[in-house]
Amino acid sequence: MDKLYDVKAVGPNDVWAVGEYWDRNGAQLATILHWDGASWTVVPNSCSPLFGITVINASDIWAVGYASCHYDGTTWTSIPIPASGGANTLNDVSAVASNDVWAVGDTTVCDGFGCYSSAYAIHWNGTQWINLSPTGGVLSGVEALAANNVYAVGTKSLGTVVLRWNGKSWRSVPSPDPEKGGALNEITSTPGKLWSVGYFLNNGNDSQTLVVDTPSATQGTVTGNVGVSGATVSWFGAVTGSTTTDSFGNYAAAGLPAGSYTLVATSGDCTPGVTTVQIVAGKTVRKDFSINCGQ
């Protein structure tokens, strides 16, 4: 069984596609195909399964999956990636230059209570991969525009995630997160704009397609903590809506038109928490407030 996941072109007669296949012994291996303008050819390699590829030039190509693999114009060579304490999967890769390559995915750790995934992001500096993972969520797509301007997208328990690397750290970027949230799977750029695609869950728990452009010039995000898991946080302003806090009491509301909002947090017979917040376009604002459930 063969599967292909990504494709990139150097030119009309130089196209690469990557994926995975299972041999007769059940081993999971990498598939790399090359188009020379006349036919596709299976290219020998020593890589693990691959899910993303980026082209810098004809002799500088990166592909990623359970590890990374580099093409130097002649040979594909497996390149180790940093350990993270779990099983790493890289879903996408993007490059600014030979010494400025980014790959993103997730790290999964399993214990006696289950398996947990977190974001995994690494940077190739021309010599080695460096772990520069953000906290929270998992990542599916990355678009590197400059050394200090890299965007990554994905999901977390509260909904879609858009992050930006500013040269020093990752920062959250507001993105619309309709109804019950969802995931962003890929991101690409056009002059002056970024586009990302994925899905969201509507109030009937049905999956619907989602296309967003970012960063938003008119919308912002508010995140925070109300101290109670499973609480309902509602907002009232230019738009109204609600969300449910996670097991730690965290909430997030994205895609809110800029302006003033009232936030109300409720849970059972507890005394509701009420606060106000000013949403700023293109920014994420943090607002913690409390529900009083007594002793």
Task: Please render the helix and strand layout as text.
Elements: E1 2-11, E2 14-22, E3 28-35, E4 40-42, E5 50-57, E6 60-65, E7 68-71, E8 76-79, E9 87-97, E10 100-111, E11 114-124, E12 129-131, E13 138-146, E14 149-156, E15 159-165, E16 170-172, E17 182-190, E18 193-201, E19 207-214, E20 219-225, E21 232-236, E22 240-244, E23 250-257, E24 259-266, E25 273-279, E26 284-286
Parallel strand pairs: 20-26
Antiparallel strand pairs: 1-2, 2-3, 3-4, 5-6, 6-7, 7-8, 9-10, 10-11, 11-12, 13-14, 14-15, 15-16, 17-18, 18-19, 20-23, 21-22, 21-24, 24-25
Strands of the widest sheet, in order across it, are 1-2-3-4
State which percent range the strand residues make up.
Answer: over 45%
Number of strands: 26
- Approximate helicity band: under 10%
Radius of gyration: 21 Å
Most strands sheet: 4 strands, antiparallel
Taking the alpha carbons of the first and last residues, their distance comes to 58 Å
Alpha-beta content class: mainly beta
Number of H- or I-type helical stretches: 0
What is the overall silhouette?
Answer: elongated
| Poorly predicted runs | none
Order of helices and strands: EEEEEEEEEEEEEEEEEEEEEEEEEE
Mean pLDDT across the residues is 89
Describe this structure in words.
There is one protein chain. 0% of the residues lie in helices and 63% in strands. With 295 residues, the chain is mainly β. The protein is elongated.
List the main descriptive attributes of the protein structure presented here.
295 residues; mainly beta; 4-stranded antiparallel sheet; elongated; 63% strand; 26 strands
